[in-house]
Amino acid sequence: MTPPETPTGYRQPTRFHYSSLLLGVLSAIVFAASAIGFGGLLWFFQGKPEELTISISISSGRDFLPLFAGLGVFVGTLVVHEAIHGFVFRRLGYRVSYGFEPRIPALYTVAFGQFVTRRDNMLVDVAPLAAMTLVGIPLLAGPMPIALAAYFALLVNTSGAVGDLYLLWRLWRMPSETVLYDTDFRHSYVFEPTNDTAIGVGKP
Question: TM segments (predicted)?
């Protein structure tokens, strides 16, 4: 896919891409750190467990309920994460596209075919991690089934936000008037201003 025409006051675009290997390694590290950190909070709120018993049984359909519940929390966390991205995008005035990329695999929320400012990208990126963490941590003090569901959701959300945090870090190092443009899921372009006084690109 070819990039859009370069706006006045901006340099020729550069491609933006994620390193699958890097994100995979970082996700594993963040997952482990989150498991310890949120596990410590769970222990603080719930107290030290006297006994931990793990059992697997397939004698009846009821025995699959924990598995189905875990799967529901996993999928629900991913959907809510992307919905928050989309909500912030729409509040900022962008048209939003949702989808699933099977080659990764991953859900995505993108403002295709639009110039998105650095500031707006940063707000969209950080929103799910901030919102779901603020909601999830107090739930660790609730009844044990809710606390365990919140713990799992926090792990999924935090490790799944590695890509968002990576983009946030990259954007932080770019000029304030930088804009990004996604032509499709695999083609993203960065337009940096020719100088610090560039006006920038407005929303469609």
Answer: 21-45, 65-89, 122-140, 146-169
β-pairing, 115-117 vs 97-101, is unpaired
Distance of CA 156 to the CA centre of its chain: 10
Ramachandran sector of residue 93 (left: φ over 0; alpha: ψ -120 to 50; beta: rest): left
Structure tokens at 133: 């963490």
Q: How far is CA 189 from CA 26, 107, 115, 137, 185, in A?
A: 23, 20, 10, 36, 11
Return the number of other C-beta atoms located less than 10 Å from residue 156's C-beta: 21
pTM for this prediction: 0.86
Q: Are 182 and 17 in contact (CB under 8 A)?
A: no
- The phi, psi pair for 15, rounded to 5°, reads -75, 140
Tell me the three state secondary structure of residue 173: coil
* Per-residue burial over 28-54, b = 16 or more CB atoms within 10 Å of its CB, e = otherwise: eebbeebeeebeebbeeebeeeeeeee
* Tens digit of each residue's pLDDT (9 = 90 or more) over 95-130: 999 998 877 778 899 999 999 999 999 999 999 999
pLDDT tens digits for range 64-92: 777 888 899 999 999 999 999 999 999 99
For residue 125, the tally of other CB atoms under 10 A from its CB is 21
Burial of 168 (0-12, 13-18, 19+ CB in 10 A): middle
SS3 at position 93: coil
